Amino acid sequence: MVSTSLQAGGRFPDLVLDDHSGNRRALSELVGGDPTILQTYRGWWCPKEQAFFRQRLLPLQDELEVAYARIVSLSVDPSAVTAAFRAGLGARWTFLCDPDRTALQRLGLRETTDTVNDPYVPAVFVLAPDLRIHASYDGYWYLRRPTAAELCHDLRAVAAEIREDWSAPTS
Amino acid sequence: MTGSWHWLALVEEAPADATACAIATELDGAPAGHLAIWDRRGRPTREARRVDARLLDRDGAEAHVSLVRLPSGVRLPFDDVAVQQARRAVLATPPFDAVTTLLSDASHFEGSLTVARGADVARLRGDPFARIFPARILRVASGALGRIPAPAGPVIERYGSARPWPWDRFDDAPRSGVGSRRA
After folding, report:
1. Does residue A44 contact residue A85 with C-beta atoms inside 8 Å?
2. Nearest C-alpha in B relative to A27
3. Number of Cβ atoms within 10 Å of the Cβ of B140
4. Which domain holds residue B15?
5. DSSP letters along chain B, please?
6. Inter-chain contact A64–B92, Cβ cutoff 8 Å?
7. Is the separation of the CB atoms in A34 and A68 below 8 Å?
8. Cα-Cα-Cα-Cα dihedral of A105, A114, A81, B54, to 10°?
9. Each residue of B3-30: pLDDT tens digit?
């Protein structure tokens, strides 16, 4: 179960981790001023993660690139592995890497049933620019993961809160 | 930093009023002029173009750059599919120390500047924007060019049409007299 502090209404910690290129990045910097999908995933090797990337997030990427919304993915895979996985997927967003599992421990998102890989439990959070959690999805069971439509609905709700000109300026 | 963009130009003589200026040379050592950056509202020279303000760093180390400029008389919409695809390619490939598009109005792509140091210099030949128009690879002395964090992705749009991509947020109000189209 995803920690109660990481449910809707809570605030996600401002993690500072290496990205897939080995550059130190703060989550708040990556979120910037946009609604953001933050996804934790087990690792490159998991078929469920590969399906979620290919069937949900990659198609969504082609819309978010013009929608002023962002995606950040996070796993325990090291930068070099993550860079290769990202390139193979064709993803154009930032992947964060937590091979030392420091953020994993802080967040309480370790998947306890996998003692071999000691990975993140799959989860999806929709964040506002101040890292407030608008929505939280436990992805341990694949069918609990959000659909693209649900993610768009969540992103729209956050955007409506933060965009002062959400109603089109007309004359 | 006074806003989301500054002015940049490659000029023959070092301008006295530039905020930062560094000598530029061709790869064979031939003089290429001075790369100047101005932090000011008005366009300082006819050749100057807007760049992401984060590019300016008066303590920035020597670097190599790929400078893409359009041939004289050519204009290309910023929304052209070739420019869109170049932005996607920048996001998909390993980041350089900095990249910025060049703008002079709200509608047109007027080139790009990509900054590399160390082992990344060799990758400048693969600058995605150089697939649209030819690039000049130059060596630029220290004192002008900084690093811009890699764009978070996957957004390829400008945050207001006056702001060079990849400037990545709306929260800096646009300066008067320039557009701010969003959607």
Report:
1. yes
2. B152
3. 24
4. 5-140
5. --SSEEEEEEESSPPTT-SEEEEEEETTS-EEEEEEEE-SSS--STT-EEEEGGGB-TTPPPEEEEEEEPPTT--EETT-HHHHHHHHHHHHSPP-SEEEE-BSSSSEE-EEEEEE-GGGGGGGGG-GGGGTS-EEEEEE-SSSB---PPP-SS--S-SSTTSPTT---S-SPPPTTS-----
6. no
7. yes
8. -30
9. 899 999 999 999 999 999 999 999 999 9
Q: Is B154 inside a domain boundary? A: no
A18 forms bridges with which residues in the sheet?
A: A24, A97
The two structure tokens encoding residue B133: 């128009």
| Beta carbons of B157 and A32 less than 8 Å apart | no
Domains, in order of start, for chain A: 4-161 (3.40.30.10)
Q: Is residue A162 within 8 Å of residue A35, measured between CB atoms?
A: yes
Global pTM reads 0.93
Q: Does B152 touch chain A (CB under 8 A)?
A: yes
> In chain B, which residue's Cα lies nearest the Cα of A34?
B169
Alpha-carbon gap, residue A43 to A62, rounded angstroms: 23
Report the alpha-carbon distance of residue B64 to residue B138 in Å, rounded. 6
Contacts (Cβ under 8 Å, ≥6 apart) of B71: B133
* Longest distance between any two alpha carbons in chain A, whole Å: 61
ipTM for the assembly: 0.93
Instruction: For residue B152, tell me if it sits in a domain.
Output: no
Query: What is the rounded CA–CA span in Å between residue B72 and residue B67?
Result: 15
**Could you report the per-residue pLDDT of B144-176, keeping only the tens digit for each?**
999 999 999 999 999 999 999 999 999 754 434
What are the beta bridge partners of residue B21?
B36
Asked if A71 and B150 come within 8 Å (Cβ–Cβ), the reply is no
**What is the number of domains present in chain B?**
1
Tokens of A18: 């290496």
Facing residues of B137 across strands?
A: B66
Contact B155 A33 (CB under 8 A): no
State whether residue A107 is helix, strand or coil.
helix
Give SS3 for A46: coil
Nearest to B154 among A19, A25, A65 (CB): A65
Cβ neighbours of residue B132 closer than 8 Å, sequence gap 6 or more: B68, B76, B82, B83, B86, B109
CB A93 to CB B154 under 8 A?
yes
